[in-house]
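Following the same procedure, sequence and fold were stored together, as reproduced here:

>
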Amino acid sequence: MSVVADAIDAVRESAPMVHCIGPGVSASLVADGLLAAGARPMMTATASESPTLVAAADALSINLGMLTTDGAEAIPPTITAARNAEVPWVLDPAAIGLAPVRTPLATSIVTERPVIVRGNASEILALHGSGKGGRGADTVNHPDQALAAGTEIARAADSVVAISGLVDLITDGRQMRRVALGSMLLPQVTGTGCLLGALMAACSAVATPWASAVTASAWLGVAGEMAEPRASGPGSFRVALIDALAAVTPDEVADRAGE
């Protein structure tokens, strides 16, 4: 069996709890998507509770979209607590670039050894310091334009970097993998990128960072492809996507990913 199929089986068998600190606008999709995949969400983003509760989690997902004052205060100590408890964590530097709070926060915490950094091309370039970011959460760059920056981040942070786009690029600083799966409807539903980062975190609880990034990208991509013909538009696609995350088999994902 492939590493992709193994990781999906392991998520469904162990039901890892993923502590998510992220934007409220995508919380419902992220929670429902994790549950459909077989994981369990926990969403606490206050400095008074988050660092304590993360020790009970199996993985931590940090997403800087719609960053609140509570979230900005809670993130650094929560990461420290996660590292002390050996809980793997994933960074999604959403919409960094022009943002004056989240951008320096992202460049600071990326040194805290996230197992995976997931972002679009403009976000990865901004995190690297060689780009100004996109238009909010929208990229103005192609993943290939951010590959060199992503490779350098991966080496410096000892992490896997996943650059999302029409074709996802995944690098650990030594090897690179393209994942060409998905639907054009995925960008039309708020929070699918947030869900991808959280799904990578769920996988990181049971698999290596490399396998987790590849698996989550393929899992969501195949689910998107399954959901598209069942949908009449973005609204029904959202529902079909959740259903597909639950219904797709590990072998289906592995086969479509070329494993």
The first strand starts at residue 17 and ends at 21. Residues 3-256 form a domain with the UDP-N-acetylmuramoyl-L-alanine:D-glutamate ligase fold (CATH 3.40.1190.20). Strands lie at 17-21, 40-42, 59-63, 89-92, 116-120, 160-164, 168-171, 176-179.
